[in-house]
Amino acid sequence: MIKDERYKEIMQLLRKTGTVKVNDIMDKLDVSDMTVRRDLASLEKQGLLKRVHGGAKVNTFNEELSHKEKRIIHIDEKRAIVKKAIEYIQTGDTIFLGPGTTIELLAQLIDVADVRIVTNCLPVFEILNQKKEHQKIYLVGGEMRNNTQSFFGDLTNKIITDLKFNKAFFSCNALVGQEIMTSTLEEGQTQTLALNNSQERFLLADSSKIGKTDFCVYYRLDEVTELITNQDETHKYKQLDSSSIILV
Description:
By secondary structure, the protein is of the alpha/beta class. 35% of the residues lie in helices and 25% in strands. β5 (115-119), α7 (122-129) and β6 (135-139) form a beta-alpha-beta unit. α6 runs parallel beside α7 (122-129). GO terms for molecular function: DNA binding.
């Protein structure tokens, strides 16, 4: 049995019972103890489960990964999402780009002329600054949060409060029902200000975020213009209370 098929079977077992033992997976899939533990480690890194003594359980509370880790997981899904999102950026727009590795991928694709872009995320700014012909780019500073390489706090919020945008593109750590969540209250407050000052709001979130919870609820799905997410084998998007979902 190939790796992806094992992953699928393990997740199906977890969805049935909420927990699964290593021995049960070994018996079900006819694989070694070492293979099971390696698979569980990989699935945990993707945020799909939480390893416990002797097995694993459903991961409902999101454990934030490092910026480096986020850059390499669910990369194909993120690329499909930003390929769709780029269609909404047009000449003459004034847009806000929030923090996150998905938004960094979006920044790499932006080649529209006469666009004004504001961001509080250093990696996003650096990507845009390398190809800034025909674009005006603004980095909003303040106190930096290392895990997301983004700025937040009183100084950041003071500047964003006075700015208005046609469109905002942002991501999240977790998404349940109507609740859009991130890991810190301060970063959530900065995102909220930018979103409230935007005419249209586009949430870019791969399906691994759906069904997870995190510390701070900073926005509601019914206030988002569109959620752009990927189809997955379990159709996680059906868990969400929204009619404004674009699937890629």
